[in-house]
Amino acid sequence: MEHPAGRGPDRELARIDFGPDDLEELREAIERVVAEFVPATQVSELVLAVHEVALNSVLHGAGRGHVRVIHTGPELVFDIRDRDGSPTSPTVLPPNADSTHGRGLWIASHLSDGIAITAIPDQTSVRLSVLLPTSD
């Protein structure tokens, strides 16, 4: 995919498959990839955001999926996909204070700069984006 104004192509930094037994390895892999691009204080936030969406795939989707980490130049994009077969998109809702679950997408949306959720037959995609620090 090309950027407008000739900024160059997107670059896939990683593609990580995950299932219920792989979430620790997923967190470690995301940490290694993003540490090169964001301040140390933001690394754990991005790891948590991606983990929450992947956990939703495991619990509410197909049980497994993959994450693509894409460097677009001005931002990192985390494209988390599973093959859940649901025709409806998950919704980001504020957490209920009495509930012990249902916060994953809300947390991810607050720890990233953008979230886009798409559901098509047999696949759900959640794309988290984070603007990268600019060098002055």
| Sheet with the most strands: spatial strand order | 1-2-3-5-4
- Give the % helix: 25-40%
Radius of gyration: 15 Å
User: Roughly what is the average pLDDT, rounded to an integer?
Assistant: 86
The oligomeric status of these chains comes to single chain
Could you give the distance between the termini?
A: 27 Å
**What is the 3D form?**
globular
Q: SSE string, helix = H, strand = E?
A: EHHEEHEE
Number of strands: 5
* Percentage of β-strand residues: 25-35%
The residue ranges in which pLDDT falls below 50 over 5 or more consecutive positions are 1-6
Query: How many individual helices?
Result: 3
Largest β sheet strand count, sense and barrel closure: 5 strands, antiparallel
The computed structural class is alpha+beta
Question: Would you kindly provide a written description of the structure presented here, covering whatever features stand out?
Answer:
By secondary structure, the chain is of the alpha+beta class. It has a domain of 88 residues. Helix content is 30%, strand content 29%. The protein contains three helices and five strands; from the N terminus they run E-H-H-E-E-H-E-E. A five-stranded antiparallel β-sheet has the order 1-2-3-5-4, with helices on one face. Strand 2 and strand 3 form a beta hairpin. Helix 1 runs antiparallel to helix 2. The radius of gyration is 15 Å and the shape is globular. The protein starts with 10 loop residues before the first strand and ends in a 5-residue tail after the last strand. The N terminus is likely disordered.
